[in-house]
Amino acid sequence: MMICCIQTLLLLGAQLALSIPNNFFYHNFRKGNGNKEIHFSGVKLHVDSAQPAVFAATGDNVTLPCRFWYEPELTSPREPRRGHETDVVAIGSRICLLVRGRVQIRQDFPGDATLVMTNLMLNDTGRYHCEVVDGLEDKSTSVYLELRGVVFPYQHPRGHYHLSFLAAQQACEQQASTLATFSQLFQSWKEGLNWCNAGWLADGTVQYPMTRPRVPCGGDGLAPGVRSYGRRHLQLHRYDVFCFSSTLQGKVYYRQPSHTMNLTEAQQACQEDGAQVAKVGQLYAAWKLSVLDRCDAGWLADGSVRYPITRPRRNCGPSEPGVRSFGFPPPQHKHGVYCYKSGDELM
Ligand SMILES: *[C@@H]1O[C@H](CO)[C@@H](O)[C@H](O)[C@H]1NC(C)=O
Ligand SMILES: *[C@@H]1O[C@H](CO)[C@@H](O)[C@H](O)[C@H]1NC(C)=O
Ligand SMILES: *[C@@H]1O[C@H](CO)[C@@H](O)[C@H](O)[C@H]1NC(C)=O
């Protein structure tokens, strides 16, 4: 299986792998052995998916439907090869992970080539192409796998525009999230995300979502939309980042302090509960997916201070719902804290 990874990467080169980071291909090979007649007898191969898109959450098991058939029907149906893991070939940077055990091709009936994935991860989002190869014929269809979640803008503690692409990727991972894809950002823009600072996306482009154009954000003459700076230099250029975070397996809560705490004391307070200081991605997921609403500023793991508001009200920030941020105060400042307790520890 490792060989498959290496071969495919060599074939495509890092460039292409990067330009389609969220495209996955899997093949159901039905290698031609004496079946050339098919190409000369007017028999056509068809491939179709019953669903153009599948929605899921992290930790879920999903099936991405795909089936193929011939028209006219074959008089002597050919035995499909039994599916096993080596039939799954994914092109792009994720091959190795995909092939290692979490993915299988289901073959419940002749012509079934449904992909079954278990224990979805944040970065499994993307378009999956099901390609059926039979002799010279080669047909494909695709299914978009979308994880329910939330996109949030993130900046380095030292301020705006400090992150290279790699640093942006690490920043998201450290905050329990992954780099957002363009379609995730676009979806968030449709839901009202309005952000004036440009951030990296998973495909190496830099963009920002604008619902209310105004002068400091590219001018008020422009239409609302997701504005793109295009592909930027991955090492040299520095921006903020858009991260994506999904369903929590645990719980985020505000710890009511007997006294307000500096960052060290906040860490100890969560530890006393058998929990940890919540990461930014966890707070956003709790706000968006578990409707956490709390008008108290609290420390988070990255040293920032924020609070989640789903029902905007007086003295709790702007009139739209959102996670409010006080930036990164000095660690000796005193605040409450948001802790995160994982699913295992809750039981
Ligand atoms: C997913 O499938 C695995 C193995 O088939 C199973 O152990 C697990 O409980 C399933 N998870 C969910 C969320 O259904
Ligand atoms: C996807 O996420 C997993 C778990 O966080 C991580 O180990 C893996 O490296 C990520 N893969 C890619 C291609 O980013
Ligand atoms: C927080 O306060 C404790 C005393 O309660 C002190 O020992 C510690 O150095 C302080 N930490 C920071 C980051 O200011």
Model description:
The strands form five sheets. Strands 10, 11, 12, 13, 14 and 15 form a six-stranded mixed sheet that branches. Strands 16, 17, 18, 19, 20 and 21 form a six-stranded mixed sheet that branches. Strands 1-8-9-3 form a four-stranded mixed sheet, with no helix packed on it. It is globular. It is an alpha+beta fold and 347 residues long. The chain has helices at residues 2-19, 95-102, 165-174, 182-190, 263-272, 280-289, 343-346, and strands spanning 23-30, 44-48, 53-56, 62-64, 67-71, 103-106, 114-117, 126-134, 137-147, 149-154, 178-179, 199-200, 205-210, 225-231, 240-246, 251-255, 276-277, 298-299, 305-309, 322-325, 336-341. One 2-acetamido-2-deoxy-beta-D-glucopyranose binds next to α5. InterPro entries: C-type_lectin-like/link_sf, CTDL_fold, Hyaluronan_bind_Proteoglycan, Ig-like_dom_sf, Ig-like_fold, Ig_sub, Ig_V-set, Link_dom. Residues 1-19 form the signal peptide. It is found in: Secreted, Extracellular space, Extracellular matrix.
Quick structural overview:
With 347 residues, the protein is an alpha+beta fold. The protein has helices spanning 2-19, 95-102, 165-174, 182-190, 263-272, 280-289, 343-346; strands at 23-30, 44-48, 53-56, 62-64, 67-71, 103-106, 114-117, 126-134, 137-147, 149-154, 178-179, 199-200, 205-210, 225-231, 240-246, 251-255, 276-277, 298-299, 305-309, 322-325, 336-341. The protein has three domains: 2-147, Sandwich (Immunoglobulin-like); 149-245, Mannose-Binding Protein A, subunit A (Mannose-Binding Protein A, Chain A), CATH 3.10.100; 247-346, Roll (Mannose-Binding Protein A, Chain A), CATH 3.10.100.10.
